[in-house]
Amino acid sequence: MTPHPVPPAQALIVVDVQSAFVAGPDAVPEAPRLLDRVTDLIARARAGGSLIVHLQNDGPAGAPDEPKTPGWELHLPVRESHREVVIRKTDDDGFYETGLGDLLTGRGVRDLAVCGVMSEMCVSATARTALELGYRVVLPHDAHATYDIPAAADISDAVPAAMASRVAEWALGDEIEIIARAADLAFTP
């Protein structure tokens, strides 16, 4: 864990906080906690004048996040502007074949925070690419989530979502800054 105080971030990347994953009976465990933390991060990033990027996954036909379905919709309100944008993606990695890298470079961003769903998939893939591109990446432990991993015959018992999220953090290596609480992160333009 990163010692306090945590240097501020210049941008907040909100990964796939779409209704299919955070509302209703198919929401990730701890969805209310996640939404509370992400809502607070967005409010503080707005107040700090930081760039906010909402990534929105375009799932395949029949998927819960299929474009233009209720589950595909971003769950939290977006104030689209120069400082708050939506980028659609079709891959776990928010940088892959999107304008995210160009946007961050164009705005002079070097320090970013990542939050959202799923910890071991899109959050991890986006954070990993950001690290590879030389960004400072902060991942608040209480602001990302995933589903329980089902048991696999002859391999393992079920893995609770909280453990899967922690393993996803660990797998990102020692360059990422994991902080315990989203509330400890400040934002700057």
Summarize the structure in words:
28% of the residues lie in helices and 19% in strands. It is an alpha/beta fold. It has a single domain (11-184), classed as Rossmann fold (3-Layer(aba) Sandwich). Helix 4 (119-132) packs parallel to helix 5 (161-171). The model has no long low-confidence stretch (mean pLDDT 96). It holds the Pfam family Isochorismatase. This is Isochorismatase family protein. It comes from Streptomyces botrytidirepellens. InterPro entries: Isochorismatase-like_dom, Isochorismatase-like_hydrls, Isochorismatase-like_sf.
Q: What shape does the CA trace take?
A: globular
Q: Could you name the ranges where pLDDT drops below 50 across 5 or more consecutive residues? A: none
Q: What's the total helix number?
A: 5
SSE series: EHHEEHEHEEHE
Note the beta-strand portion. Answer: 15-25%
The CATH first-level class comes to Alpha Beta
- Report the end-to-end length measured between terminal Cα atoms: 25 Å
Q: Determine the CATH topology.
A: Rossmann fold
Task: Report the sheet with the most strands, covering strand number, pairing sense and barrel closure.
Answer: 7 strands, parallel
Q: Share of helix among residues?
A: 25-40%
Structural class: alpha/beta
Write the CATH architecture name. 3-Layer(aba) Sandwich
* Number of domain units: 1
Radius of gyration, in Å, reads: 16 Å
What is the average per-residue confidence, as pLDDT, rounded to a whole number? 96
- What is the H level of CATH, i.e. the homologous superfamily? Isochorismatase-like
